[in-house]
Amino acid sequence: MITAQNMQRRPLYANTGYGPAFSVLEVGLPDQVAVIEPDTAFWALVRREELGDALAGGLVAEFGAQCGDFRAEMQNLRFGLKPSAAYFNPTEQCNFNCTYCYLPEDMRRHGKTMTEEELCGALERLKIAFAQMIPEGALPQVIFHGSEPMLAREAVFAGIERFADDFTFGVQTNASLLDEEAIAFLTGYGVGIGVSLDAPSAEIADLTRRNWNGTGCFDRVVKVIDRLASYEAFNVITTVTSANVGTLPAMVDFYHEHGVRVVMFNPVRCTRSGGHAIKPDNAELAGYFIEALDRTCELFEKTGKKMVVANFANVMAAIIGPTGRRLMCDIAPCGGGRCFVAVSAHGDVFPCSEFIGFPEYRGGNLYEDRLSDILETAPFREITGRKTENFKPCSDCAIRHFCGAPCPAEVKVLSGTVDAPSPYCEFYEEQVRYAFRAIAQGRAETYLWDGWREDTEESFTLT
What we know:
Elements: H1 4-9, E1 23-25, E2 32-37, E3 42-47, H2 51-55, H3 58-79, E4 85-88, H4 105-110, H5 116-131, E5 141-144, H6 153-162, E6 168-173, H7 180-188, E7 192-196, H8 202-208, H9 218-228, E8 234-240, H10 248-257, E9 262-267, H11 273-277, H12 282-303, E10 308-309, H13 310-320, E11 340-343, E12 348-350, E13 364-365, H14 371-374, H15 378-384, H16 400-403, H17 408-415, H18 425-440, H19 444-447, H20 452-455
Parallel strand pairs: 4-5, 4-11, 5-6, 6-7, 7-8, 8-9, 9-10
Antiparallel strand pairs: 1-2, 2-3, 11-12, 12-13
Helix pairs in contact: 5-6, 10-12, 12-18, 13-18
């Protein structure tokens, strides 16, 4: 006797009855398409002429055999992790006045800077809190972030020195204050160093990244890049705006010539009017971004030297093996309040640095409240409970687990709610299509960091 229960156990077809709901995604190839089960991020590349058989044959059976594991993996990735990192702003002040900064101008001009005692006290509290959240023997991460952390240099260095055995440290800086002594200290302690540069020429780079007198420091940053290019834990961030989007392919050549191995081409966040005013057009951004990716591939094939565009590599990793991704912006809920927190110079705790400057997203204070309690407050639950399944058009999107509709901070500013799509929706679409093309063409390794397989468990291969 055939029952509904029997049929549920043995689905034969996709998109009917108890079978999986597969979406077919055009990826820009004449002979192949991607087939995706959106809830689990299961996918396969299928030849067009074999699509019918795939939807009524081996692909359905293969998914049925493994869907439980896929669902559990995605559920844990989205809702089972606990914070193991903090973006730590030791000062609110900055010696720069970048046009797109996500922090309010008054804060950057006149804000608070932590003393050594305050900074080390905050690190001690983070150490205790993280010890209760992460596996024994694992080190949590603290990234000193901005405004400009080198304005609190003495306190930052004291914290790194005192807690060297308790955290892995990173510093994200505009590089203007990185002298030889500072570089020697940071590299001596194995601190990750990230610097920012927005174009391959001072004429363009200094349009958006400049000090309060309107002067940029392109030449200074390039000298720091040359000094640190061989340092293993070094990367450069380029914030992509309407002013520099056309230089992305040239930026690849520039960085490659200067020995940079890891870069991020981050679209400007629209959390402040300055950033929103210079947001690049999505189609233009996608076009130049893909040109830049093509150029990294060409240079790798020509020279054997790989330059990883980390934000794209993360999208690629999210497709190949979701647990292998290293950044947590392109998934919903994002990493804010879930994989990391942000700590202000007052000790206030926010889900992410993008929310500093929005007091309604303050979950508590590190000096006064337990981090475990802060994570359960309403502002944090709003971000950690954000699901793309709950709003259009993301709820119907095949690639929602490869994109995540980031960033909830800018989405909130632009839409009045976090439950809305990203202003960069079309750009993320094209990244995912490009990634599938690269996988189909056997070029995935070209774009991924060395050793990525060690972080990734492959869940399905279609031959």
